[in-house]
Design goal:
By secondary structure, the protein is of the alpha/beta class. It folds into two domains: 5-139, Rossmann fold (3-Layer(aba) Sandwich), CATH 3.40.50.620; 145-250, Rossmann fold. Helix content is 35%, strand content 20%. It has helices at residues 13-28, 41-45, 57-76, 91-99, 122-130, 142-145, 164-176, 206-217; strands at 5-8, 33-38, 82-87, 104-108, 135-138, 151-155, 179-183, 223-224, 237-242, 245-250.
Amino acid sequence: MQAPLVVGVDGSESSLQAVDWAADEAARHATPLRMVYASLWERYEGAVPTGGLERPAGRVLAENILGAAAERARLRVPALAVSTDVLAEDATSALLREGASSSAVVVGSRGRGQLASVLLGSVSLVVAARSVCPVVVVRGDEVALASRHERILLGVGGRDVGAPAVRFAFHEAATRGCALHVLRTWRQPAGRPAEHGAAPLQGRSPMAGVVLAKGQRWSRLRVLGPSPSGLSLPTTCCLWTSDSRPVRRCC
């Protein structure tokens, strides 16, 4: 059975952007899309007798939000297989558990809190740091959200030459037909002249050499080396390694 692509939904504008992105991604990889809404409403409402047969307001709200999100995804990709589920637990725990059996987890960059316009959402931050599967934090302008920059940025280090993020980046770039830009950063010792872009990519990191070697196995994939210091590159998405797990951020 094919592992689904999971997207967290809470009804916020950010989560609806994540739904759009996830629907396109699921269609691109021919993967079923699973939408989840997680909340602790049952802990509070379930303990209060209603005196009737009314369903808890929290569950009704969750089902309405999921129903609207599922309809949105089906209108965007008519042939997409979509399933939904309401989970009576906190969002972070639910998404981490869902990630254990999914191809990737997709979340919006911000939730519905009062600091939504200031900070990266706490749920997306924790899930990206702790998940055992690839995590996509959807954000950016319309061009980025539509994946029209045609460039994927991969940040590499030297600790793990077999990092899943490297394999994930190559596969994603090949699927999308994007160029893969490999970036390695390092500290310049004080008192020494800057050498940005002067040394070959292989000399910067053991992993960097592996990246270029992988590129030779993907003959149709454009693999680009370092860019000059301070150059801002519009990208379809950025990927970097975190404890050997692929973590991905759409920007």
